[in-house]
Amino acid sequence: MLRKHSVTGGPKKTSPIQVVLSTCAGFTLRLSATSAVRLVYALFVVRGVRGLIVFPYGDFEYPGPMTRRGVVLIVAVGVVAAAAFVVFLADPFNWLAQSEPVPSYVIAIDAGHGGRDPGAIAEDVEPNVYEKDINLAIVEMLRELVDAEPDFAAEQIRTLDIFISLEDRILQAAEAGAEVYVTIHVNSYFNADPHGIETIIDDTREQDDDAWVLAELIQSSVTEATGARDRGTRSQESYLQRATFPAVSVETGYITNPEERARLIDPAYQQQIAQGILNGIRQFIDWRYPANLSP
Ligand SMILES: [Zn+2]
After folding, report:
1. pTM (two decimals)
2. For 232-248, how does the pLDDT look when each residue is reduced to its tens digit (9 = 90+)?
3. Is the pLDDT of residue 9 over 80?
4. In the chain, what are the domains?
5. How far is the CA of 249 from the centre of ligand 1 (A)?
6. CA of 270 to the centre of ligand 1 (A)
7. How far, in Å, from the CA of 120 to the mean position of ligand 1?
8. Residue 183 C-alpha to ligand 1 middle, in angstroms?
9. Contact partners, residue 186, CB within 8 Å, separation at least 6
10. What local confidence, expressed as pLDDT, does residue 94 receive?
């Protein structure tokens, strides 16, 4: 929309709110509130939507003969206005830049079990140790680490000691636009011997599925970060097959092994697990999207 400046000689209906720019030189230059809004709007349009430019118009009137002082003043105001507009367009102080990069990758992290489903339980110690609590503690730490990455955004599936169905966990991750899905668990066995970490994917995945790469990278980085025994990666029948994105279950240790159980309830060790898992996720994203690697 392009309109000419309205130049009038006589009394004129004007906006009640006016900024009187100058009355000292035999003319009056008023910028009505409407025109001020239009001016601001036009500046945003110029910066925002290319191809659509709206020019503001003001209420400009000079009842008497124009004096030389008036002409000089009008030219001066015009030069200042033009300079301000150029500075606005060039944005030399970067006022218009976004201060934070927008996270590109949603990382779904889940604490296995919860609520009425405690997962594995160590009943031979007081107080009893529940898998669901260890899972949630590690996921809370992992969320902090994920959200600290400028291009990651964590989608924490279970945040409380509540029951969530396996279907709903995958659904929540899918609705969040998850790039990967990592669920945290603790293993158990009928005797105290086994210990160590393993990472599991579902058995519907082909050999070239990205889930294998995610599992291998997490498994190697989490065993490196913790020094735990590396039990490797494997596939088994799992609800993870519902996920269209790479999904893994990290079995972070054996609650039935007294030494490993003692480590699993230690916040310092939980932090090592979380850091190891984050490192694996980072390596996976950098492998999956090599063009986005920062220089
Ligand atoms: Zn479990």
Report:
1. 0.67
2. 999 999 999 999 999 99
3. no
4. 6-90 (no CATH), 105-292 (3.40.630.40)
5. 9
6. 16
7. 7
8. 9
9. 112, 119, 120, 131, 134, 135, 251, 252, 253, 254, 255, 264
10. 75
- Polymer length in residues for the chain: 295
Q: Which residues lie closer than 8 Å to 227 by C-beta, 6 or more apart?
A: none
CB 224 within 8 A of CB 287: no
Q: How far is the CA of 162 from the centre of ligand 1 (A)?
A: 14
H/E element, 182: strand 178-187
Per-residue pLDDT of 11-59, as tens digits, reads 444 444 444 444 445 555 555 666 666 666 665 555 554 333 444 444 4
d(CA 206, ligand 1 centre) in Å: 24
pLDDT of residue 5: 47
Q: Residues within 5 Å of ion ligand 1 by Cβ? A: 112, 119, 185
Distance CA 99, CA 101 (A): 7
Strand order in the sheet with 230-236: 152-156, 105-111, 178-187, 247-254, 197-202, 230-236
Give the type of residue at 35: S
